[in-house]
Write a sequence for this structure.
C-alpha cells in the first residue's frame, strides 16, 4: 500500500497505519497517535480527495473544500494537517505561546526560506508568492502574514501549506492562527483555508 492509499483510507474513516508519534492538526485541534487520528477521521470522514501531489517526503491531497498535507518517512505517514474542516471541535487544553512576527524578523507578507523547502524548485517561488499574496489581499484582518510551513513542486505543478498569522481589525488586535493549502497545475490553481473559529485561539508553533 502506498502512502497515498494509506492516507485516502485513513481520511475515509478506515483504520490505517501511521507512525507512532504522528500528529494531526485540524483547525484548533491536535490529535496524537494512530488511535486518536483514526477516531478524528471516523467522526468527520473526508472522501472527495481527487487531486494528489507528491514529492520526496511530502504528500498533499486536495478535494473541493478541504485538503490534507502529510510529512512522509519513506511510505509512512509521520505528520498530518487537515485544512478547511468546518467544525474541527474543541481545542485540547494547552498553554498559549506568544508569537511576534516582528521579533521573528518576518516583516514580509509571505515568509519563506528556500533552504527550508528542498523539494521546491526555486523557479516555483514566483507562482507560490503570487497565490499567497492574492490570498492575503482578501484577508479582513488588520494585518495578515503568511508563513510557508511546507512547500514542494515545480513552476508547473506544486503545493504549499501556509500558516496565516492575523491581527483582528478591532480596537483590540487579537491574534489568530489558521492554515491554508495552495496548489498550482499549469494555469489552474486552488486555495483552501481554515474557517476562522469564533472563539479565542491559541497561537501554536507550526514549524
Amino acid at each position: 500500500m502506498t502512502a497515498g492509499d494509506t492516507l485516502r483510507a485513513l481520511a475515509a474513516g478506515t483504520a490505517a497505519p501511521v507512525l507512532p508519534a504522528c500528529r494531526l492538526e485540524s483547525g484548533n485541534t491536535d490529535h496524537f497517535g494512530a488511535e486518536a487520528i483514526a477516531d478524528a477521521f471516523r467522526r468527520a470522514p473526508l472522501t472527495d480527495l481527487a487531486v494528489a501531489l507528491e514529492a520526496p517526503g511530502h504528500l498533499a491531497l486536495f478535494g473541493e473544500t478541504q485538503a490534507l498535507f502529510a510529512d512522509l518517512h519513506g511510505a509512512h505517514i509521520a505528520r498530518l494537517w487537515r485544512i478547511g474542516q468546518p467544525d474541527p471541535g474543541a481545542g485540547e487544553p494547552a498553554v498559549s505561546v506568544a508569537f511576534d512576527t516582528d521579533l521573528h524578523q518576518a516583516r514580509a507578507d509571505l515568509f519563506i526560506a528556500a533552504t527550508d523547502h528542498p523539494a521546491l524548485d526555486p523557479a516555483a517561488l514566483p507562482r507560490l508568492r503570487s497565490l499567497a499574496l492574492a490570498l492575503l489581499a482578501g484577508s479582513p484582518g488588520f494585518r495578515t502574514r503568511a508563513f510557508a510551513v511546507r512547500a514542494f513542486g515545480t513552476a508547473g505543478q506544486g503545493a504549499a501549506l501556509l500558516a496565516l498569522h492575523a491581527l483582528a481589525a478591532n480596537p483590540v488586535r487579537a491574534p489568530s492562527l489558521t492554515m491554508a493549502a495552495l496548489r498550482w497545475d499549469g494555469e489552474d490553481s486552488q486555495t483552501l483555508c481554515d474557517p476562522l473559529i469564533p472563539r479565542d485561539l491559541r497561537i501554536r508553533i507550526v514549524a
